[in-house]
Structure formats: C-alpha cells, structure tokens
What we know:
The chain has 376 residues and is α+β, with helices and mostly antiparallel strands. It has 18 helices and twelve strands. The longest helix is centred in the middle third of the chain and has 32 residues, at 155-186.
Amino acid sequence: MPVTRHDFTGTIIDILKSHFPEHSEELLDRSELLQYLNLKTKAANRGSKARAALANHYAIYVLVEDYLNQEFHNKGGYDEYEGAQFTPLLSRIRELPFGRKLQNHALNSRVTDEFKGFFPNSPYLPIIRDQKTNRYWINEKLLTVTLGHTVCNIAEAVKTTIDAYIEARQRAFKEFMVYCEEIWDVQEEALDKAITFVRSLLRPNVDARVFEIVSYAALKEFYADQIIYWGYSPDELNEEFIVLYKTGRTNANDGGIDFVMKPLGRFFQVTEVVDAGKYFLDIDKVQRYPITFVVKTELTVEEILKKVREQATARYGIKAIVERYMECVEEVINIPELMKRFDEVLAKGRGKEVVEEIVLQSRVEFNVEEEEIKEE
Length: 376
C-alpha cells in the first residue's frame, strides 16, 4: 500500500537513516510493520483521540523489547524460543507512560485485527500467540526486510520509533498539564488569565482530547442551572437540575458516546471531522438514538449539516435512508456556538468552575494518580 506521509513520517525516516543510512526510504516502502507504525503515529504532532491511544504500540513494543533483550537480532534462533510470558508482558506495558490502565486486548487480538485491516494481503501477522501456553512472539518475518542481497533487521529501529512517538505524546501532554497546573495556582488571583487560556483551547487545531475536555467543562456549566420538571402525573412533578456526565476517558471504547445528559437522556459525541460515514456509524452504534454532535470546526452549523447531507446522499442515494439518519442528528454544536455558551457561563460568574473541571478531567485523562489529586 502507498505510504501515507505526515509530520512524524520524517522522524521515522531519520531513525531508519541512523540504523540503515543507505536504505531508509526503501525500508519504509518495503516494510509492512514500519508502514503500520507510520499509520499509528499520526497523533505525534496533532490532535486525535483514537490515534493517541498507545495500547497497540505497546503490544508491539514489549515483544520487540523482549526480542532485543535476548539478542535474537544478533544471534538468531528465535524460531526455537519458547515465547514471552503474558504476565511480564502486561506488567511491562503498564510500566510505560500512559500504560497504567491498559488491558490485554492489544496483545491478544487488536493489533492482529487492525494489521489485517490495513494489510489484508499480507501472509504475516505481527503477534503470534500460543493460547495453550499463553506465550507470545513478535513475528520475526516482519522484522527482517530483504533488499537485494542485504537482510535488514529493523527491531531496534521499531523500538526507537515507538520510543520517539511516546516522547512526542508525553511532550504534548506535559505542556498542557504544566499550563493547567499554572492555571490551578493562579485562578484565585488571576481568573482572567485562566479564562484566556480556556478560550485558546477552543480552536480547530487543538489536540482532540483537550478539545473534548474543554467542551465538556464548558457545556457542563452551561447546562448546570437549567431545571427540568418531570413526573408520572401532572399533580406530582419532580424538579431536577440538568447534569452532564462524561462517559469515561476520551479514547474509551464506549460505543461512540462521550457525554450523557441526565434526566433528559441526551447523547453527545465529540468529533474532529464533518463526515457522514462517521456520524452515521456513531448513530448506528446506539441503534439510531438521536445524538448531539460537538464538532471541532468553525464551519457554520448550516454548512456542517449541508455537507453531511450531501455526503449521505452520494453514499446512499435513497432519500428515505438519508432522512432517517439526518433525523438522528439532534443538534450540532460548533466552535462558535461553544464560545457563545462559554461566554454565557462567564456572565453567570462560573468561569472558575470550568477551569477546575478542565484540570480535574485532564488529570484523569493523562493518568495522574488519584492519590496525588487527594494530596493536593
């Protein structure tokens, strides 16, 4: 498949040059494993939730690390290796940055399934598993690339590439968290600075996780003083404030639902793109339950809906199907609308609550220990 070029591709090529000065570009073109990592490292310098998830990177990383630690890249004999044990592999994954809460899914199936999706004609799978013994191997066929009469073992380059990607993600997260800590310290005496910071995060080019956190904090306070009256008879009504809940972490496998509103039962999905296919997939995941889409764009709501309808019409060609999906788009909230709602929150004197929620959610998202939060 053609190699997709993005910001981090240059870093991968530089790493390959350091190991194989004469073959860097050719190796990337010929190696399916390097191409897979290239596809999985788009998030290094720009925001995206799913791309930032590290589980699949780490499953490959710990197996390549095990391969290198025992020097199979130098001495050979990997085909006779008894395999790495599951428990040490998972423990090592959880030692890595942002890996504390990762589960076993990437080791057991997700890397293989995703790799097969990218390379359906490849005869090789990246991770080999013996279910009887629960032992694991990296597929050495993907670590060796033959270029003419030269056989290149890319194991060290693979490990270095993932290390560089982790460092890039850490740097981005650290910069954000440092700023959040500063905001935490100054919010009492310089709330205006904190508010300016929040406004700067409601932009199209901000990291997707950050955008989701900020949009949640702003919308939570926007709805917080709204009251719903409901009951089973007109004579017995309950009075209840609207509460917006965040459904776990920003890259959680939650069926496409980022926020849930109680007691109205509204679903919210945060997205970077104007893509009918993605919107309708989210709608299908919840059996066509209406969803409010919070879109990281400055396009008008009318432009967003027009594009979605045009894409859907081109895709399906049947008006009834298009309308059925469009009816499930309960509301679209773009960046200008978020800014407007944030201004209303500020007018009510609740800017501090928004800032505190951003810091809290950021700590949860970026794996800051609960004990640390309690201590502070």
